[in-house]
Protein backbone atom coordinates (compact mmCIF):
# COMPACT_ATOMS: atom_id res chain seq x y z
CA UNK A 1 0.00 0.00 0.00
CA UNK A 2 1.45 3.42 -0.87
CA UNK A 3 1.49 6.54 1.23
CA UNK A 4 2.95 10.04 1.08
CA UNK A 5 4.84 10.94 4.20
CA UNK A 6 7.02 13.49 5.90
CA UNK A 7 9.02 13.42 9.11
CA UNK A 8 10.15 16.61 10.81
CA UNK A 9 11.92 17.68 13.95
CA UNK A 10 9.20 19.45 15.94
CA UNK A 11 10.16 20.71 19.40
CA UNK A 12 6.69 21.97 20.43
CA UNK A 13 4.32 19.00 20.57
CA UNK A 14 1.89 21.01 22.70
CA UNK A 15 1.52 23.45 19.79
CA UNK A 16 0.91 20.49 17.47
CA UNK A 17 -1.82 19.16 19.79
CA UNK A 18 -3.49 22.57 19.74
CA UNK A 19 -3.41 22.69 15.94
CA UNK A 20 -4.81 19.14 15.74
CA UNK A 21 -7.72 20.24 17.92
CA UNK A 22 -8.28 23.40 15.85
CA UNK A 23 -8.35 21.33 12.62
CA UNK A 24 -10.80 18.82 14.13
CA UNK A 25 -8.37 15.90 14.01
CA UNK A 26 -9.65 12.73 15.67
CA UNK A 27 -7.48 11.55 18.57
CA UNK A 28 -6.84 7.79 18.24
CA UNK A 29 -4.60 7.19 21.23
CA UNK A 30 -1.08 6.99 22.62
CA UNK A 31 0.99 4.07 21.42
CA UNK A 32 4.24 2.83 22.96
CA UNK A 33 6.22 1.35 20.05
CA UNK A 34 9.42 -0.65 19.88
CA UNK A 35 10.77 -0.94 16.33
CA UNK A 36 13.49 -3.51 15.71
CA UNK A 37 15.14 -2.78 12.36
CA UNK A 38 16.87 -5.70 10.68
CA UNK A 39 19.89 -5.50 8.38
CA UNK A 40 18.76 -5.47 4.75
CA UNK A 41 20.63 -4.87 1.48
CA UNK A 42 17.76 -2.69 0.16
CA UNK A 43 14.72 -1.04 1.67
CA UNK A 44 13.90 -1.45 5.32
CA UNK A 45 12.42 -4.22 7.44
CA UNK A 46 11.22 -3.69 10.98
CA UNK A 47 9.31 -5.60 13.61
CA UNK A 48 6.96 -3.20 15.39
CA UNK A 49 5.74 -4.04 18.86
CA UNK A 50 2.79 -1.74 19.51
CA UNK A 51 0.85 -1.28 22.74
CA UNK A 52 -2.28 -0.42 20.69
CA UNK A 53 -2.23 -2.84 17.78
CA UNK A 54 0.01 -5.78 18.62
CA UNK A 55 3.09 -6.89 16.73
CA UNK A 56 3.67 -6.81 12.99
CA UNK A 57 6.43 -6.83 10.39
CA UNK A 58 6.71 -3.82 8.11
CA UNK A 59 8.84 -4.21 4.98
CA UNK A 60 9.04 -0.90 3.10
CA UNK A 61 10.81 0.98 0.36
CA UNK A 62 11.14 4.76 0.54
CA UNK A 63 13.73 7.12 -0.89
CA UNK A 64 15.81 9.23 1.49
CA UNK A 65 15.00 12.63 0.01
CA UNK A 66 13.67 16.03 1.02
CA UNK A 67 9.99 16.83 1.13
CA UNK A 68 6.94 14.61 0.95
CA UNK A 69 7.92 11.20 -0.38
CA UNK A 70 6.14 8.07 -1.53
CA UNK A 71 6.60 4.91 0.51
CA UNK A 72 5.49 1.40 -0.49
CA UNK A 73 4.93 -0.92 2.45
CA UNK A 74 3.07 -3.89 3.82
CA UNK A 75 1.93 -4.55 7.36
CA UNK A 76 2.03 -8.22 8.31
CA UNK A 77 0.50 -9.31 11.63
CA UNK A 78 2.85 -11.48 13.74
CA UNK A 79 1.40 -14.16 16.01
CA UNK A 80 4.64 -15.21 17.75
CA UNK A 81 6.63 -11.98 18.23
CA UNK A 82 9.48 -13.35 20.34
CA UNK A 83 10.09 -16.28 18.01
CA UNK A 84 9.91 -14.08 14.89
CA UNK A 85 12.25 -11.48 16.40
CA UNK A 86 14.74 -14.17 17.39
CA UNK A 87 14.67 -15.84 13.95
CA UNK A 88 15.02 -12.60 11.97
CA UNK A 89 17.78 -11.45 14.33
CA UNK A 90 19.69 -14.67 13.61
CA UNK A 91 19.02 -14.61 9.85
CA UNK A 92 19.54 -10.91 9.07
CA UNK A 93 21.02 -9.35 12.19
CA UNK A 94 19.61 -6.38 14.11
CA UNK A 95 20.63 -2.99 12.80
CA UNK A 96 18.87 -0.71 15.30
CA UNK A 97 16.16 -0.66 17.96
CA UNK A 98 14.04 2.49 18.25
CA UNK A 99 11.58 3.12 21.10
CA UNK A 100 9.00 5.86 21.04
CA UNK A 101 5.74 7.15 22.45
CA UNK A 102 3.42 8.09 19.59
CA UNK A 103 0.25 10.18 19.83
CA UNK A 104 -1.95 9.35 16.85
CA UNK A 105 -4.50 11.67 15.24
CA UNK A 106 -6.50 11.36 12.01
CA UNK A 107 -7.67 13.94 9.49
CA UNK A 108 -9.49 12.08 6.71
CA UNK A 109 -6.91 9.59 5.35
CA UNK A 110 -3.93 11.37 6.89
CA UNK A 111 -2.37 9.95 10.04
CA UNK A 112 -0.67 12.54 12.22
CA UNK A 113 2.00 11.19 14.56
CA UNK A 114 3.41 13.23 17.42
CA UNK A 115 6.44 11.19 18.40
CA UNK A 116 8.74 11.40 21.39
CA UNK A 117 11.63 9.15 20.37
CA UNK A 118 13.90 7.81 23.11
CA UNK A 119 17.36 9.36 22.81
CA UNK A 120 16.42 11.56 19.85
CA UNK A 121 13.56 13.84 20.92
CA UNK A 122 10.23 15.13 19.57
CA UNK A 123 9.21 14.58 15.95
CA UNK A 124 6.18 14.98 13.79
CA UNK A 125 4.97 12.73 10.94
CA UNK A 126 2.21 12.84 8.37
CA UNK A 127 1.22 9.69 6.48
CA UNK A 128 -1.39 10.14 3.76
CA UNK A 129 -2.48 6.58 2.94
CA UNK A 130 -4.19 5.88 -0.38
CA UNK A 131 -5.07 2.88 -2.52
CA UNK A 132 -5.07 4.07 -6.13
CA UNK A 133 -1.41 4.41 -7.12
CA UNK A 134 -2.02 6.69 -10.10
CA UNK A 135 -0.03 9.89 -10.52
CA UNK A 136 -3.21 11.92 -10.08
CA UNK A 137 -3.92 10.36 -6.67
CA UNK A 138 -0.28 10.66 -5.58
CA UNK A 139 -0.22 14.37 -6.48
CA UNK A 140 -3.50 14.95 -4.60
CA UNK A 141 -2.06 13.30 -1.47
CA UNK A 142 1.17 15.30 -1.78
CA UNK A 143 -0.94 18.48 -1.89
CA UNK A 144 -2.79 17.43 1.30
CA UNK A 145 0.50 16.87 3.08
CA UNK A 146 1.92 20.20 1.85
CA UNK A 147 -1.23 22.02 3.05
CA UNK A 148 -0.94 20.37 6.47
CA UNK A 149 2.75 21.31 6.64
CA UNK A 150 1.65 24.95 6.26
CA UNK A 151 -1.08 24.57 8.91
CA UNK A 152 1.44 23.12 11.38
CA UNK A 153 4.14 25.62 10.36
CA UNK A 154 6.61 22.89 9.42
CA UNK A 155 9.58 24.40 7.62
CA UNK A 156 11.41 22.56 4.87
CA UNK A 157 14.59 22.90 6.99
CA UNK A 158 13.09 20.75 9.74
CA UNK A 159 12.21 17.87 7.37
CA UNK A 160 14.16 14.66 7.85
CA UNK A 161 15.30 12.61 4.86
CA UNK A 162 15.84 9.37 6.74
CA UNK A 163 14.04 7.04 9.13
CA UNK A 164 14.28 6.90 12.91
CA UNK A 165 16.63 3.98 12.28
CA UNK A 166 19.22 6.32 10.74
CA UNK A 167 18.52 9.17 13.16
CA UNK A 168 19.09 6.85 16.13
CA UNK A 169 22.41 5.71 14.66
CA UNK A 170 23.50 9.30 14.13
CA UNK A 171 22.56 10.31 17.68
CA UNK A 172 24.73 7.48 19.06
CA UNK A 173 27.88 8.86 17.39
Concise description?
By secondary structure, this protein is α+β, with helices and mostly antiparallel strands. The protein is 28% helix and 43% strand.
CATH superfamily caption: Hypothetical Protein Pfu-838710-001
Mean pLDDT: 92
How many discrete domains? 1
Strand content: 35-45%
Instruction: Tell me how many strands there are.
Output: 9
CATH C-level category: Mainly Beta
Question: Widest sheet: strand order?
Answer: 1-5-4-3-2-7-8-9
Describe this structure in words.
By secondary structure, the chain is α+β, with helices and mostly antiparallel strands. The chain contains four helices and nine strands; from the N terminus they run E-H-E-E-E-E-E-H-E-E-E-H-H. It starts with a strand and ends with a helix. The model has no long low-confidence stretch (mean pLDDT 92).
Element layout with pairings:
Layout: E1 2-9, H1 13-23, E2 26-38, E3 44-50, E4 54-61, E5 69-73, E6 76-77, H2 81-92, E7 94-107, E8 110-117, E9 121-129, H3 135-151, H4 164-172
Antiparallel strand pairs: 1-5, 1-9, 2-3, 2-7, 3-4, 4-5, 4-6, 7-8, 8-9
Question: What tags apply to this protein structure?
Answer:
eight-stranded antiparallel β-barrel; 4 helices; alpha+beta; Hypothetical Protein Pfu-838710-001; 173 residues
Amino acid sequence: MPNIEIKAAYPDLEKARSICKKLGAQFVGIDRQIDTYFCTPQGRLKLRESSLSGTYMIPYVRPDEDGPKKSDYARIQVEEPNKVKDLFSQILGVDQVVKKDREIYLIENVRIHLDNVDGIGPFFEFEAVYENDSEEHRLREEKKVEDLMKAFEISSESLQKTSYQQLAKTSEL
